[in-house]
Amino acid sequence: MENTVNIKDYLLKEQQAGQDIDANLISLIEDVSAACKEIHTAINHGALYGVLGSAESENIQGETQKKLDVMSNEMFIRHTEKSGTLAGMASEEEEDVYSIPPQYKKGPYLMYFDPLDGSSNIDVNITVGSIFSIVRCPEGVTDPKLADYLIPGTEQICAGFCLYGPSTLMIITTGNGVQGFTLDPGSNEFKLTHKNMMIPEDTAEFAVNMSNQRFWEKPVQRYVQECIDGVTGARDKNFNMRWVASMVGEVYRILTRGGIFMYPFDTKDPAKAGKLRLMYEANPMSFIVEQAGGLSSTGRERIMELKPKEIHQRVPVILGSTNEVKRVDSYHQ
Ligand code: AHG
Ligand code: MN
Ligand code: MN
Asked: How far is residue 126's CA from residue 164's CA, in Å, rounded to a whole number?
């Protein structure tokens, strides 16, 4: 029967097929999907629930928080801290790593998350999402400190994102391909609708915030100029451009029909290596993109191989269709 497999059914099937998925991981992913359903409901009701607009506070990155940034962060924590699956977590909206309160049991995993990605889009009713990444807590560590969280993306055992768009979708990888589940409003369950998503190797669509053009390095300037030149230039082919300003939206489009997404290094603020954050944006999206046959790089290195130095560290991101990412990398050499 079509569309009857929910996230738990899928994970149990993978477990039976010999994938390294234990009961704690299944329970944690279920908790994350419960949080995402609650975020979905808040976003869906928007002004009716009074959830739009600014929270009039700043996060550690100096960004003004939206009410929904704060609420989504609380929903993620509340749904995942109790079940004994996590040793700790780190969020875009938390300055320090989050310790599991003493009244709850601790578990074997660490989770990094961006509770609401693309939050500049909330008040204008454009797609936003939530991103998460799960790794094993280092052996013997029961009370993880900041240094214990600095684990490269290659160690991820699960990554996913929920997209609050015209449909609400959960995209998940546990290292055996990428699966997409659509939230069925009738049953309030995520049902498997997009099996083994694969990114086409070639594309004629690029996504970049063109207003930063003057701050980019030469290799990115060259690549984008060649796309714009179309059939009259070196590429001998016309390109289309998109910019949703929600990484979740861009990555979902790329999973669906290919493309390249870039938030490259720029000199706008020399203190920042890029805009996107390694642990809860770039790493999980890289894992998903690579599992779907694409590539993800800084232009110089594979993102998932970077050795993290800080929990809120920023990185340049260039990801998507293999042949285009390879081309941008080659321009950096
Ligand atoms: P967040 O809302 O979690 O801070 O992330 C926003 C990110 C990302 O989703 C998007 O690709 C990018 O910021 C958009 O940046 P611009 O506003 O520079 O277009
Ligand atoms: Mn984000
Ligand atoms: Mn965010």
From this structure: 9
Q: Which residue has the tokens 């701050």?
A: 215
| Least reliable range by pLDDT among 54-68, 215-229, 277-291 | 54-68
Q: Does residue 126 line the site of ligand 1, with CB under 6 A?
A: no
Residue 307 Cα to ligand 2 midpoint, Å, equals: 20
Does residue 209 line the site of ligand 1, with CB under 6 A? yes
The pTM of the full predicted model, rounded to 2 decimals, is 0.97
**For the chain, what is the mean pLDDT?**
97
- Is 3.30.540.10 the CATH number for 7-194? yes
Q: Where do the domains of the chain lie?
A: 7-194, 205-332
Which ligand minimizes its atom distance to the CA of 64? 1
| Strand order through the sheet with 178-184 | 98-99, 86-91, 109-117, 128-136, 158-164, 168-173, 178-184, 189-194
Atom 6 of ligand 1, nearest CA residue: 118
**Band of pLDDT at residue 2, cut at 50, 70 and 90:** low
Tell me what the mean pLDDT of segment 251-263 comes to.
Answer: 98
* Ligand 1 proximity of 277 Cβ (cutoff 6 Å): no
What is the third-level CATH fold of 205-332? D-Maltodextrin-Binding Protein; domain 2 (3.40.190)
Residue carrying the six token digits 């993800």: 296
